[in-house]
Every structure is written in structure tokens, then in C-alpha cells.
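User: C-alpha cells for this one?
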Amino acid sequence: MKLTDNYNRIHDYVRISLIDKCNLNCIYCNPLNTLVKYESNKSILSYEELFRLIHILVKDLEVKKIRFTGGEPLIRKDIMKFFEMIYPLKNKYDFEMGITTNGTHLLDKLELLRLYGIELLNISLDTLNKSKFISITGKDLFDETISAINKAIETGFKSLKINMVVIKNVNDDELLSFIEYFKSFPISLRFIEYMPFTGNGWNDSKFLSWNEMKSEIIKKYNLIEIENDGKISKDYLIENAQLKIGFISSISDHFCDSCNRLRITAKGEIKTCLFSKPEKQSLKSLLSNQSITDDEIAEFIQSSLKTKWFNHPDVNELSKLNQNNMMSIGG
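Assistant:
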């Protein structure tokens, strides 16, 4: 059974948050002035429940790609034992596994992540300036992050993407510096439009559209457009370089009509859209109950997807949403 919504969009990509905590306080996600209520360890999905969930997704619902997010997934206790635990599922079913991380706890885990079947690695990095890194994240962990990125490039993953959230008058002056730094590597660099989430201080004066970013970049680099095959990113090759760049235009030019994503929060709530309220019933109560069959859980996930919007509200409405914290959603 394919996961299909009311608009016939097939959902074969699920993002699962492993933890709602992060060790950074990035200004666009988890600013220090935001009062986020963390879930207790007993409230989030256990590794056994996550194993059952993933098994259902890939066996019964034909999911082809699972990405683990957070918070920061690599700070969860015994996280590498979890990846070792689920590796047999990857051997049995045809699906890709990836993680999105801030890179601060990545360096010593790279080899094992590859060994346990993680092929897709996204690392967040919003500046190449150490002082600015501290001002954006609230932590002095630039050296750990950049070392992990350099090592990840050497280690070789099927896909390695560097994600930069671009904010006007914060880091928009580094677009060209990022390309210059990464242009000799066969990786992807993605520039993400700043999105409004609860408590992150979003307003028009801080927003830079993907077209504005592109206009700045083509002053120095020739871009070769890559055909978009339904992906969320507008992708280009940098002429005479190995680097591919992409723009994620969630605000100025949304791509909801081709959305194939379903999100599950750390405590097992289904989020049919990054900006929607979670479904009332958590998967945790179902996954922990062995008298409920896998088929019943698959049916619940499918029925939840039927509530999905065709597209998210406009930016004015998004900026007014409450209880919509990126870290607790699993971005």
C-alpha cells in the first residue's frame, strides 16, 4: 500500500525526529529566548518502537527514504546502537537512510554511520566565520563542525549536502564565500529561505528570496540549471567546478504540489506538513501495544495523511502560528 493523500501525492519519504533537544540555540530554530518544553525521555519513541515503526513504513507502506532528524539526533544516548539495530532492515528492504545533523557530534561517528547504512548526510552550517557562528548558534563549536564536514567529504557518502539558512544582514554576505570554500568538492550546497517559526523573530526585513540569492551568485559564477525531477530544491551546477548548489524556496515559491514528505515527531506525532498541527493521537500508544497489529498502524498512518493540506498557508499566517517550534517538529 502506497501512502497517498487526497491530492494523489504519493509519500515515500518520511522524516523521523529522534529527539526534541539540541545542543545549539540557532537564532532561526531554537533561540535562547524561546521557552520550549522538552519531552521527557519516557515520552519519546523508544528505539524498539522506532524499529517497529520503520519496519511498517518500509514493509507495508512502500516508503523508500527515511531521514533521521531532531533536535540534534546524534546527541541521543546510545544512538549508534540504534543505527546498528535498524541496519538489518535496510539489508532486507529497498530504502535509503539519511540523517540531518548540526555536525558538532559527528566527527567520531562518520565511519560507523556509513557501516550502518547511512548514505545521505545533511549538515547544517550557516557561516564560515567562527565569531559569527557563536552569535548564530550560541555555542563555540565551529571548529568541531568544520572538522566534521571536511572529514565527511573525505569519507564519501552517496549524498552530502551542506544546508545554510540565509538571513539578511546576518549571513547573506557569505553566499559567494560558501561557494568558493566548497567549489572543488563533489557535494551539494543548499541555500534555504528563512522561514517563520514560533519565537524566531521572522520578519520581512530579514528575508532574502531565492531569486535574490541567485542574482548575487551569478555576479561571479555561471550557473548551469539541472532539470528538477520533482525535488524540493532548485538545483544548479557551478560551471568548471564540482559543486552543485540548490535553493529551497519554501516561502517565495513553495513546492507543495510535489510534496512527498511525512514527518513524525520524537514523541510519535504525525505531522503531515512542516507547518500543520500534529495529529491528536500519537503513534507511541499504538507502537507500544503489541495487541495492535502492524496492519492497523499502517491504516492509521494512511488515514492521518488524508488530512494533509494541498499547500501551506501564506507567510503572514505562518508568522502567527503558535507552538510551531522547528526543533520540536523535527525539521
